[in-house]
């Protein structure tokens, strides 16, 4: 039976299909609301330069490790680690827990974005630019927030249900170019607004006085989460790769895609928010949902006749970013269930749909029926808790265990040999040093900083 399942395993149609899918996974909501906020907070160009260095050293090193591990074993996370011995399966289990926690709440936020995309056409820009009442009323609603969550989920489930080539590849082939074109077009238009150029200069000009350990940790954390590391996605996507496709050039291009979209999103959002608030510090004070769902609608409403079009296109852009990441998360869950239970892909998808819908409904209730549950203190929600456990705790632990596993147990040569199946790997000595020594230290710094920040011992 196991052999039969292995033969049925899907594969990408080519190297660029993998690159586009992995880049689509990397490009998500974090690029749209967290990267611009961090860039505004930490001196614009100084943060950008730091981020570039980290992506093309630490980031691509871990990307290469995970995709090579997936391609070598032809398995999702649990099977990939278990292939080297049953006692290592626990690393894969921890890695697999991450997307199981993230996917339900990511789809909730995807529902918010879907609602706003439609609202610009149905309600108009004035209704959304009311200082936050529209947003608060929506997410705390007892019915509407669930409906839009389910709409977003349905789109994702249909695309994943059509398969790797028939669904995911085709969706990414449309959404990724559309996402980039819309981002560039809106950024260019935004720069024509009074005050936007000053925002762009603030964003692009390095302010080295802002360089600090907090900046480095912020850039590390953003890069870590943005590249879909330590959550089983890249292992799963790597398992669909063909042996003849170069791993090294692929991961560099994935890093480049993610960096490019983050850069454009930052240029767009910091410039637009600068128009509304007039200073970098004011932009930096807004992070996450409030920046996207409260601040930006107040910017768009001042665009007059273009407000509806720009607002709609912006949230459509964000919707595509959310969809591409959610698709990769659900596909990872399907692959984990498919490999673990050795069942058909259709049955695996059915199990995943049931889990994601039920878990999503429970987490979403944290804003209405279960709002009395405040797991991280006053004002926190179940979603905040799920985000903290997955992003700030589990992911760094998984990354640390993965580096130790490859660097010290199965040895780097295991991965290096897999990389060299399809291309030369001249950077192998430097990559080995990164995985054995540097990456574990950086991951520990991320883990300690984010946990300390959550409990008020460190400012982020």
UniProtKB/TrEMBL annotation:
Lipid bilayer topology: Multi-pass membrane protein
Keywords for this protein: Membrane, Symport, Transmembrane, Transmembrane helix, Transport
Gene Ontology cellular-component annotations: membrane
Parts forming coiled coils: none
Family: Belongs to the sodium:neurotransmitter symporter (SNF) (TC 2.A.22) family.
NCBIfam families referenced in this protein's UniProt entry, alphabetically: Na_transp
The protein's name: Transporter
Organism: Adlercreutzia rubneri
């Amino acid at each position: 039976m196991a052999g039969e399942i292995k033969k049925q395993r899907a594969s990408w149609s080519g190297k660029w299909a993998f690159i586009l899918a992995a880049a689509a996974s990397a490009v998500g909501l974090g690029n749209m609301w967290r990267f611009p906020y961090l860039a505004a907070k930490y001196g614009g160009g100084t943060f950008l330069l730091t981020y570039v260095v980290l992506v093309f050293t630490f980031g691509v090193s871990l990307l290469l490790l995970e995709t090579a591990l997936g391609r070598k074993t032809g398995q999702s996370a649990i099977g990939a680690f278990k292939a080297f011995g049953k006692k290592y399966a626990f690393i894969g289990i921890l890695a697999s827990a991450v997307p199981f926690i993230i996917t339900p709440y990511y789809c909730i936020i995807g529902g918010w974005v879907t609602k706003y995309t439609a609202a610009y056409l149905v309600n108009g820009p004035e209704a959304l630019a009311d200082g936050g009442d529209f947003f608060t009323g929506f997410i705390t609603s007892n019915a509407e927030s669930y409906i839009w969550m389910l709409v977003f989920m349905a789109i994702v489930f249909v695309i994943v249900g059509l398969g790797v080539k028939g669904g995911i590849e085709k969706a990414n082939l449309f959404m990724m170019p559309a996402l980039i074109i819309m981002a560039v077009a809106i950024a260019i238009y935004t720069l024509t607004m009074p005050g936007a150029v000053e925002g762009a200069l603030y964003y692009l000009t390095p302010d080295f006085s802002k360089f600090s350990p907090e900046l480095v940790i912020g850039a590390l954390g953003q890069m870590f989460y943005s590249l879909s590391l330590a959550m089983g996605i890249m292992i799963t996507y790597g398992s669909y790769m063909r042996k003849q496709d170069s791993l090294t050039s692929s991961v560099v291009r994935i890093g480049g895609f993610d960096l490019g979209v983050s850069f454009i999103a930052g240029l767009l959002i910091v410039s637009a928010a600068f128009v509304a608030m007039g200073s970098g510090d004011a932009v930096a004070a807004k992070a996450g949902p409030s920046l996207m769902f409260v601040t930006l609608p107040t910017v768009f409403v001042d665009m007059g006749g273009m407000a509806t079009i720009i607002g709609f296109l912006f949230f459509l852009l964000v919707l595509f970013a959310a969809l591409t990441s959610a698709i990769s998360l659900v596909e990872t869950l399907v692959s984990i269930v498919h490999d673990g239970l050795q069942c058909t892909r259709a049955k695996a998808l059915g199990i995943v749909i049931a889990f994601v819908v039920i878990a999503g409904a429970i987490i979403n209730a944290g804003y209405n029926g279960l709002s009395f549950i405040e797991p991280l203190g006053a004002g926190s929600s179940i979603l905040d808790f799920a985000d903290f456990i997955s992003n700030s705790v589990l992911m760094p632990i998984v990354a640390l265990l993965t580096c130790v596993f490859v660097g010290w147990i199965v040895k780097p040569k295991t991965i290096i040999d897999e990389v060299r199946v399809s291309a030369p790997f001249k950077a192998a000595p430097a990559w080995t040093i990164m995985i054995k020594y540097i990456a574990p230290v950086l991951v520990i710094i991320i883990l300690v900083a984010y946990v300390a920040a959550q409990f008020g011992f460190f400012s982020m």
